Structure to design on (429 residues):
């Protein structure tokens, strides 16, 4: 009996996704709940599990195709599992009956006789193209992606290692096989580029990148966005971290970072300036008596913003543990839609990439985003003397339709005061 594999529910308001990659191919045996394909939505990549155990008999959708929730993308024959069992048992009996043959290793020629195309049928289009271009064997590459999948970077690293493994030799003595005539493209008219000349690569934008582009442009077109700046002396926070980091990690099992200080500082500041934590819905202003902070996290496929909910009532350790868990999920590609929906305010830290100053863009429908930057020792005047202090520029982008300039400056000053005197975070000043 054949069972249809359908696109699962992908989250609230999400009705479709892109079939990013087939993890199994027709003829493969699959177990119940085993991932057979990955879907890329506007926010995350999710795996499509097999509803039953059996044999994948048909793949209806193609990689890169847009599929709607509930659409059939594959079919699995449940009887296929039972049909293959006797053959497997017979194989095991044959192996047991001929131990000498089982102990004899198969000749290397047999292993290499398998066509290269069989190794790459389950790779993503970009990875498959890189494998063919660089003439590497994907079966010899250890994947660094999710569940050991091979990424394009893995292929490029293998190609580079292949070239560097033979220093001093003449380049590629063996002639390269020509591509089939159907795959050869006629050169464009005009002068041909010299060997080693400039190249171009066209890659279709992922759904995540398309959504990010759309939302960022929407923020610029909708909000009256403005940015105000300040700088903050990080000496007190750095001293506190240095003094208590070992005790903190020993007690809570997590390192004490800068982000928890800034989350607590924002929670303190929005009490004085609630408009920064509000939003506009139609002709109404929505004020929140809670703080759900969207923390910008870098993921392999782009920037994602999981939400630390009720951050105003969380401890330093709870904030650090939540952010660390989200960071791991972002790296593994396991963030859920629910974990990235909502949020009343955003914090982004460009300093981890070396940014000195930037103007962050709002995350609609939020009205405020705080940009952190790298810490840099600079001369500053303190009590009439020039001293060297670890300074950081802060940037607050806000929706001027809701937040006045005075409120924006006041908010940023409150954050600055809390960071420069962390005691304020403990006594609520």
């Amino acid at each position: 009996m054949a069972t249809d594999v359908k696109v699962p529910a992908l989250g609230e308001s999400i009705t479709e996704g892109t079939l990013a990659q087939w993890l199994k191919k027709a003829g493969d045996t699959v177990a119940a709940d085993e991932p057979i394909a990955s879907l890329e939505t506007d926010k995350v990549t999710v795996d499509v599990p097999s509803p039953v155990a059996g044999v994948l008999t048909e793949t209806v959708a193609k990689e890169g195709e847009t599929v709607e929730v509930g659409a059939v993308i594959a079919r699995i024959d449940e009887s296929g599992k039972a049909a293959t069992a006797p053959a497997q048992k017979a194989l095991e009996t044959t192996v047991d009956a001929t131990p000498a043959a089982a102990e004899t290793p198969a000749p290397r020629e047999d292993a290499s006789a398998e066509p290269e195309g069989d190794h790459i049928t389950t790779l993503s289009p970009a990875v498959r193209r890189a494998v063919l271009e660089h003439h590497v064997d994907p079966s010899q590459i250890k994947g660094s992606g999710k569940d050991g999948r091979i990424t394009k970077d893995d292929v490029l690293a293998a190609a580079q290692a292949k070239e560097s493994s033979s220093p001093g030799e003449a380049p590629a003595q063996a002639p390269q096989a020509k591509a089939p005539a159907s795959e050869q493209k006629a050169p464009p008219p005009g002068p041909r580029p010299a060997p080693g000349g400039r190249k171009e690569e066209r890659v279709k934008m992922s759904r995540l990148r398309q959504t990010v582009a759309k939302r960022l442009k929407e923020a610029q077109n909708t909000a009256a966005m403005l940015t105000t700046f300040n700088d903050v002396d990080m000496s007190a926070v750095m001293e506190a971290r240095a003094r208590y980091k070992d005790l903190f990690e020993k007690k809570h099992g997590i390192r004490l970072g800068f982000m928890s200080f800034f989350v607590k500082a924002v929670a303190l500041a929005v009490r004085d300036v609630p408009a920064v934590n509000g939003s506009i819905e139609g002709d109404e202003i929505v004020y929140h008596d809670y703080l759900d902070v969207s923390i910008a996290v870098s993921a392999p496929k782009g920037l994602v913003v999981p939400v630390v909910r009720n951050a105003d009532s969380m401890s330093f350790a709870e904030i650090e543990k939540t952010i660390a868990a989200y960071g791991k999920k972002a790296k593994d590609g396991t963030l859920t839609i629910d974990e990235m929906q909502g949020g009343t305010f955003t914090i982004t830290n460009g300093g981890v990439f070396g940014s000195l100053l930037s103007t962050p863009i709002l995350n609609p429908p939020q009205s405020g985003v705080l940009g952190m930057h790298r810490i840099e020792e600079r001369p500053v005047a303190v009590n009439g003397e020039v001293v060297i202090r670890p300074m950081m520029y802060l940037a607050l982008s806000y929706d001027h339709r809701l937040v006045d300039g005075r409120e924006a400056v006041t908010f940023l000053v409150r954050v600055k005061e809390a960071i420069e005197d962390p005691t304020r975070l403990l006594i609520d000043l």
User: Anything to note?
Assistant: Residues 81-121, 168-179 have pLDDT under 50 and may be disordered. DSSP finds 13 helices and 19 strands in the chain. The two ends are 68 Å apart (CA to CA). Residues 109-162 form a domain with the Dihydrolipoamide Transferase fold (CATH 4.10.320.10).
